[in-house]
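On clarity, I found the account of how folds are encoded harder to follow than it need be. For illustration, here is how one protein appears when written out as sequence plus structure tokens.
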Amino acid sequence: MSNSQRAGSWYLTAVGLALCFISGIFLWLMTRSYLRAREMTSWPQVPCLVLSSEVNERRIAENVAPDFRLAVLYRYQFAGKDYESKLWSLRGSMPRTERAPVEELVRQFPQGSRQNCWVNPKDPQMAVLKLDSRAAGYSLWFPGLFFLGGLGMIWGAWRRPHA
């Protein structure tokens, strides 16, 4: 193998490793998200009472448009104890640039209404009104293709060419 061929092999190896590393990070994050969402489906569902529900407007600077979030507080009982939570979902309420979708959530979870919430049995102080999506698990194939592509680049860079 000549020096230029060896340099090309090292270059392809570096690119392949970079692809494997970056896609590996996405695979790990998406797998973690999927497993957490799957675990949440086994959390017990309990009734809860919405104590307050409103649109929370936040502005990080005067010249920046505000974002809007659902600010909710609800009470529930688990294992004979009373708890309160502010979590709409595990990640909290997603910020929205428009007020209308958040107002719709306030109408969906009005103050004084009885809802169902899911309680983490390992940490009963954590409860949510909305379960996380398991969609990340259905998309794992995409970063997996890049990971396999990176491995293929590395393998192709060092295999002996046929005569």
Summary: The first strand starts at residue 45 and ends at 58. The beta strands are 45-58, 67-78, 81-85, 114-119, 127-128. The chain has two domains: 3-38+139-158, 44-130. The helical segments are 3-40, 100-108, 135-138, 141-158.
